[in-house]
Amino acid sequence: MALRAMVGVKRVIDYAVKVRVKPDKTGVVTDGVKHSMNPFCEIAVEEAVRLKEKKVVSEIIVVSCGPQQCQETIRTALAMGADRGIHVDVPAKDYERLGPFQVSKIIAALAKKENVNLVLLGKQAIDDDCNQTGQMTAALLDWPQGTFASEVTVDGESLTVVREVDGGLETIKVKLPAVVTADLRLNEPRYATLPNIMDGGGGSRAPDSTMARRDGARPSCPESPPALFSSAAGHRSRLFKPPVPGGREAEERNFLKNGKSTCFFTVIKPPL
């Protein structure tokens, strides 16, 4: 059976950057610092793309929670081969309070809404090293999980996952739908080239929906009549228009003008 996969991606300070602590010791300096996709999330995206190349996965949806800059991370995933992106808009002032539990609730709600049967996540983020989101997402969905995966094989309606554990390697078999977290040796991610990011592979396509997080609650985003557009590469995206919570403003932003079609998505702003 063809799977629909959802991959969570996180924007973090680039692994090659020397992190500097703020003078007041309240955190690290992020302004003007290079950010990129969390390396473990990148491995999860690559695994989803490889499964799609094997005709095991039919569609890849990437999800990122955070400020507007997270759309750059989504574009990188699209350039690697993902089909659609969803940006859950969390203002920068609230982002530091966004923990694994809140992210898990968002991903679980979106997995149900999108009717996916495989969730792929990095085993941890290199900024907080929590290693919690995958496990909590599986618990919220009541799905089996294969964590620290160094090899994933789809066999009909089940997955065989080779896990890296302290004592060596452990092989488990889980039924689909399932949650898998990617370890370092699962694969070697492909390079997302600049032409792919700037062209039809990613850059000319914005995330097909942007939603506002409401105090960590599950996002509610009923689908409007689908508005479809095609990029030069032939990809298609859907337009969602979330309801505007009380006291918030919404504006339509034009993200694609290629002479033939225009894509709009809704950005929800919190009250001042």
Automatic annotation (TrEMBL):
Keywords: Electron transport, Transport. It is found in: Mitochondrion matrix. The keyword Electron transport applies. GO terms for biological process: amino acid catabolic process; fatty acid beta-oxidation using acyl-CoA dehydrogenase. One of its GO terms (molecular function) is electron transfer activity. The keyword Electron transport applies. Residues 25-214 form the Electron transfer flavoprotein alpha/beta-subunit N-terminal domain. GO terms for cellular component: electron transfer flavoprotein complex; mitochondrial matrix. SUPFAM superfamilies: Adenine nucleotide alpha hydrolases-like. Residues 195-250 are annotated as: Disordered. Heterodimeric electron transfer flavoprotein that accepts electrons from several mitochondrial dehydrogenases, including acyl-CoA dehydrogenases, glutaryl-CoA and sarcosine dehydrogenase. It transfers the electrons to the main mitochondrial respiratory chain via ETF-ubiquinone oxidoreductase. Required for normal mitochondrial fatty acid oxidation and normal amino acid metabolism. ETFB binds an AMP molecule that probably has a purely structural role. Belongs to the ETF beta-subunit/FixA family. Heterodimer composed of ETFA and ETFB. Identified in a complex that contains ETFA, ETFB and ETFRF1. Interacts with ACADM. PANTHER family: ELECTRON TRANSFER FLAVOPROTEIN BETA-SUBUNIT, ELECTRON TRANSFER FLAVOPROTEIN SUBUNIT BETA. This is Electron transfer flavoprotein subunit beta.
